[in-house]
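Why should sequence recovery work at all? Because a backbone constrains its sequence more than one might expect. Tight turns favour small or flexible residues, buried strands favour hydrophobic ones, and helices have their own preferences. The token representation captures these environments compactly. In the example below, the structure is given first.
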């Protein structure tokens, strides 16, 4: 059972939020070919808001905007993919159960963003592979 005794710093919480919401943003950008990036972003965000444990509390906090910038998917990925690895690493140091909770939360978000595909979108498949690789790099 996850204990709520895990205390994350403000910066660690920002890393977790950037990683999670950034992953959904990357999927929405990759899913643009489906013509439904806004639906992908919405369903991914709903999945994140359904998280539980420490991760769920962090993702639910109202802390202002997530600091993501850039004018291309590549610039967004340059921020998000390292944040995913960092989030897994820092959560693993605090509580391995919460690291797994984070991984599962991202997996659910990925799964929900694929609801609007009638067939596999190669761009989203590739982005999913990159996101999963970043999670596994920790």
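From this structural description, the recovered sequence reads:
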């Amino acid at each position: 059972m996850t204990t709520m005794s895990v205390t994350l710093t403000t910066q660690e919480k920002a890393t977790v939020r950037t990683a999670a919401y950034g992953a959904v943003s990357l999927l929405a950008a990759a899913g643009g070919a489906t013509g439904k990036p806004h639906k992908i972003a919405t369903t991914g965000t709903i999945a994140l808001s359904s998280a539980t444990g420490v991760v769920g509390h962090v993702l639910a906090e109202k802390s202002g905007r997530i600091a993501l910038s850039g004018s291309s998917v590549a610039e967004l990925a340059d921020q998000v993919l390292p944040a995913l690895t960092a989030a897994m690493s820092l959560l693993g140091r605090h509580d391995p159960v919460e690291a797994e909770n984070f991984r599962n939360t991202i997996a659910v978000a990925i799964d929900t963003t694929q609801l609007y595909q009638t067939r596999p979108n190669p761009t989203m498949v590739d982005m999913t592979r990159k996101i999963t690789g970043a999670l596994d790099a920790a």
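A few observations help interpret the result. The chain is about 70% helix and 0% strand.
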